[in-house]
Amino acid sequence: MHTIDANGARIPVLGLGTWELRGRACTRLVEQAIKLGYRHIDTAQIYENEREVGDGVRSSGIRRDDMFITTKIWTTHFAPLDLERSLKESLARLRMSAVDLTLLHWPNPHVPLAETLGALARMRELGLTRHIGVSNFTVALIEEAVAVCPAPLVCDQVEYHPFLSQAKVLDACRRPGMALVAYSPIAKGKVKNENVLTRIGWKYRKTAAQICLRWLLQQNVVAIPRTSRVERLSENLAIFDFALSGAEMDEIFAMASPRGRLTNFAFAPEWD
What we know:
Elements lengths: L2 E4 L2 E4 L3 E2 L5 H14 L3 E3 L7 H10 L8 E6 L6 H15 L4 E6 L8 H13 L3 E7 L3 H10 L4 E7 L7 H8 L4 E5 L11 H10 L3 H10 L4 E2 L6 H8 L8 H8 L19
Parallel strand pairs: 3-4, 4-5, 5-6, 6-7, 7-8, 8-9, 9-10
Antiparallel strand pairs: 1-2
Helix pairs in contact: 1-2, 2-3, 3-4, 7-8
């Protein structure tokens, strides 16, 4: 699996997102993904599936050291002692001694960022997580986080797909050597019938979703598509045998719209 280097982390460029996956179906999908070649699995406390993800990793028969496992701390656990306790609970559910990457899932303005990141860096020191990062952070929050965090941050995980420009966030990540990890990289399936992607796909005998993932890959962006269908796992992996032209990349960039964001909660920050 191809990887992206970011402040000491080697992150596989394609992972499996597990939001909304539950129970035995989640375990089976994670196991199957790993057997097909996935080496990056993304979960979170709020997904309530860490136990099933851990079971899927173990069932795959692949060595834990060959996997890259991410989890995310929910915003109600950002006070330092809460953060440590909640990460240890995540590890207990995963039945792992450490994860590869722990993220702050969303910004929480009610707890000083320096305190939360200090605690997150401490988890790295204790060996409970190999790397640390953030999710859903804006440019201003990335800059603040980099300034106050005592350890290097390796990524910001944000919504990113052709309907939503993340040029500013991508630039803010690159300056301190962070990666951008794209969730909802195929826009929750909305790319499927999009004319530009479909037309480009015909040329390469690829689906619109594969074109979308390739577009992200060529920006050195990590993509973590979620699927509940085993047959989609292989399809999402089949993006390493072709390359989009510069003109095709630009055509896809031009699809972005101010109304393109799909994930937006009342507690979200003021987006760039």
